[in-house]
Amino acid sequence: MATLNYILERIESKKLDFTEYNFVQTESNALTIFFDLAQEFENIEDFHKLCIAIPKVFFNLDARLYLIDPKINELALVSKTEEDGYELRTPPPHDVMPNDYPYYTNNKSLVLTIRGKKLLIDKLPFMTKDDVLGLLEIYPLTNMGPHQELFFEKYANRIGFNLHNRFLFEKNIEHLRFIRFLVADIEHNIIAPNIAYRFFIKHLRKKIVKNVEVEKLLNLYSGKESIDEMTMEHLLAELTENNRGLMEELENIEKHYKNMSLFLETLLRRSHFDKGQLTLLTKPCNINKDVVQPQLDRFIEQFKKMGISIDDRFSGIPDEEVISVVDVGLIAQVYANLFSNAIKYTEEVLTQTGETKKYIAYGREVIKDYFGAGKDGIKYNVFSTGPHINPEEREKIFEDEYRGSNVSNRPGTGHGLSFIKNVVEIHGGTVGYEATQYGNNFFFILPR
Q: What confidence score (pLDDT) does residue 189 get?
């Protein structure tokens, strides 16, 4: 943190700088109005237009503004004053490039490099070289005097200052939005399923109490010379059955613990919070064995309770062939969400043969050249019987917090499908929904 004396010194230094700049009133007004309106226009595209409008209004000069596109880390045209042949989002011409000093092109335009704050350059949401954020091209003109060049150089500096602040502001907003999204993931995939421990503990307690009762009876009979054979057999049978139940509950707890640990380790990675987005930790795995089956085991009792049968043929593909490079923890949560939704929304249907069926199915198929020539995709799906989702709602179901009209009073947050979309897309894949015979098919496609 700067001291007051340092700040006072900087003010005096700036006073001297501005005296040396000797800006005329029009130039001073241009800078002042730019700063005022930069605070007024919150939309980033409006700010881009402001940057090129100042030279137009005050000096009757046209301008083009090129900025780094965060998606590709390359310069692209974002705003211009003229309806010329230059298309937005296209790169600058070959003679318009960053430089340490203002310079003129053969087309008689002045090019000024827009730079960010050196000390905060690593906080930007994209990579940049030599602190460059963009370029301002002003035209038509021939060589200006040093004074005019200095003014536009300072103007470009002020654009850079404002742009950097806006990038940081947007990055912080996205970071906060991600944390809110991640909290919803934790609530949906950790806190709610964690309630199952309460039931496991309750069942364990009952069985331990029963064992204590058997222990007391055995102690009671142990002081006698003889014990009825039938009584002994009965006590041993109770003890055996109870211990079997204890082992089952222990296995349930171990499975649940393993799953919760996987989800916690996946969602609470430090890299998520550092980058403000989900980050991948991929490895080769057998999707059926390492991802699908553990999640199916979690929900199997709930499916049975709801009268839902399971078609587990996995599309008839041999198990050893189902190998993919994925983030196991995140893809496991994708299936957890799909199975959880299936429990809530699967309904009975009447088949063509007159039978009533209520079931889910899951599978996998290879889609040749799905991501381009020689780039196959693998389609994974979870199908459940029931009425189709309304056509007008199908495009919205993967939006965060959107819940369809068919949810009735069923519990939910509208976050599960949005989470699935996010996870699949950072794997380079796509998600989708299909209304098929007898029900609904939710799928995701990953690069092979």
A: 75
CA 111 to chain centre: 38
Q: Is the pLDDT score of 317 beyond 60?
A: no
What amino acid is encoded at 63 in this protein?
A
pLDDT tens digits for range 255-268:
888 888 888 888 88
Same domain, 138 and 286: no
Q: How confident is the model at residue 403 (pLDDT cuts 50, 70, 90)?
A: low
Distance of alpha carbon 57 from alpha carbon 9, whole angstroms: 35
Most confidently modeled of 62-66, 193-197, 280-284? 62-66
CATH code (residue 131): 3.30.450.40
Give yes or no for a contact between 440 and 384, defined as CB atoms under 8 angstroms apart: yes
Nearest to 135 by CA among 185, 204, 77: 77
Q: How many residues does the chain have?
A: 448
Q: One-letter amino acid identity for 135? A: L
Contact 382, 339 (CB under 8 A): yes
| 3-state secondary structure at position 350 | strand
Q: Which domain holds residue 366?
A: 270-447
Cis peptide before 140 (omega within 30 of 0): yes
